[in-house]
Recover the amino acids of this structure.
């Protein structure tokens, strides 16, 4: 009986015991592991400031808050994206302006951004889909020319690079997710990175309930008080301890994902060559994270047939984002700029195949064999 789940959380074997044995609950307030984790991430990505958060969603909400987004402001973003990206800015009253994606990487099409800019545009919000970097060589100069802030949602992209620089270091602000579906996880968790000096103080304030508590801890003020809008950004130190353990194995975890991704790619390439489906593209200047493996089928009907067929065979495969611009709320929160050449088509024809840390190479071959069976073609590994 075949049973290949779509995803299982990354688990190295003894994560909880290794992370928490000897954990000093009495010293929890010192946030020892959160501090170590922030240091680890800072060493990797070299931001001005890195803070762990409770989720990538919270990081995005903090980004919109510290940028002072207000009703009437416009935010340019892809529609093939997670709703937290839209929510964070819509919560502050912004209008979302959706731009088409590139058909090769499914990232925002950098050539279509400029046409979407108006005098109300404040932010370009990018997503490094599946851990493949956007074309920042094109996006950053557009942002600079129009005085816009780039917020980089790097939920899928920890350890990924664009032109030898880690993803998450391109936006003025970037975010990470450590929820249970991400390559590296502590169940729920996130991080926010500030790469622009002038946003560091606003983040410290917003992160600590809208107070100057950071200055108080540093002995710069005799007491702290409510200074502005903010939240409780702290990730539990217990979660941080689990996260720290996984991060220390980040290279090995990423290689495990990438090896399985490559195996899928090599096995399925003949189907692409035969014109049966399309495989993901990783541009040569991108070092990706293999956060997911997807194929693009020829039609929405065929996508559903493939998902159903794999399900009958005991294999869980699934679709991904429903385009935000045609979602019930997206229709109210934003508009599509220009032509939707690829967003809806790719979203409706995309199937994600099982890919997770403990997936065996044998199971990858099994899934490939079943995909070949679906197309009625013999699989020759
Ligand atoms: C691109 C993207 N951004 C943000 C999020 C939200 O992450 P979190 O669950 O940490 O809030 C997700 C979750 O899957 C995501 O895929």
């Amino acid at each position: 009986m075949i049973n290949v789940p779509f995803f299982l959380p990354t688990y190295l074997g003894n994560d909880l015991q290794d992370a928490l044995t000897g954990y000093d609950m009495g010293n929890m307030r010192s946030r020892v592991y959160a501090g170590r984790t922030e240091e680890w991430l800072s060493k990797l990505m070299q931001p001005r400031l890195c803070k762990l958060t409770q989720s990538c969603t919270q990081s995005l909400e903090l980004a919109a808050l510290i940028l002072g987004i207000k009703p009437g402001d416009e935010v340019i973003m892809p529609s093939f994206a997670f709703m937290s990206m839209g929510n964070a800015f819509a919560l502050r009253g912004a209008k979302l302006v959706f731009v088409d994606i590139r058909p090769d990487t499914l990232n925002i099409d950098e050539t279509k951004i400029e046409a979407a800019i108006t005098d109300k545009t404040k932010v370009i919000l990018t997503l490094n889909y599946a851990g493949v970097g956007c074309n920042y060589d094109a996006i950053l100069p557009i942002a600079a020319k129009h005085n816009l802030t780039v917020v980089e949602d790097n939920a899928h992209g920890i350890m990924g690079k664009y032109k030898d620089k880690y993803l998450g270091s391109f936006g003025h602000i970037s975010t990470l997710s450590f929820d249970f579906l991400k390559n590296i996880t502590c169940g729920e968790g996130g991080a926010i990175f500030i790469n622009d000096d002038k946003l560091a103080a606003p983040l410290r304030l917003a992160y600590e309930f809208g107070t100057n508590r950071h200055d108080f801890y540093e002995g710069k003020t005799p007491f702290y008080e409510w200074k502005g809008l903010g939240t409780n950004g702290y990730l539990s130190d217990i979660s941080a301890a689990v996260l720290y353990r996984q991060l220390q194995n980040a290279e090995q975890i990423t290689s495990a994902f990438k090896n399985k991704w490559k195996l899928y790619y090599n096995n399925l390439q003949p189907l692409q060559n035969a014109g049966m489906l399309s495989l993901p593209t990783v541009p040569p200047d991108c070092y990706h994270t293999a956060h997911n493996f997807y194929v693009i089928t020829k039609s929405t009907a065929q996508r559903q047939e493939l998902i159903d067929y794999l399900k009958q065979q005991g294999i869980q495969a699934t679709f991904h984002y429903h385009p935000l611009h045609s979602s019930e709320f997206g229709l109210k929160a934003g508009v599509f700029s220009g032509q939707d050449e690829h967003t809806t088509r790719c979203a409706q024809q995309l199937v994600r195949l099982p890919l997770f840390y403990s997936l065996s190479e044998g199971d990858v071959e099994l899934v490939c064999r079943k995909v070949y069976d679906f197309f009625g073609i013999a699989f020759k590994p």
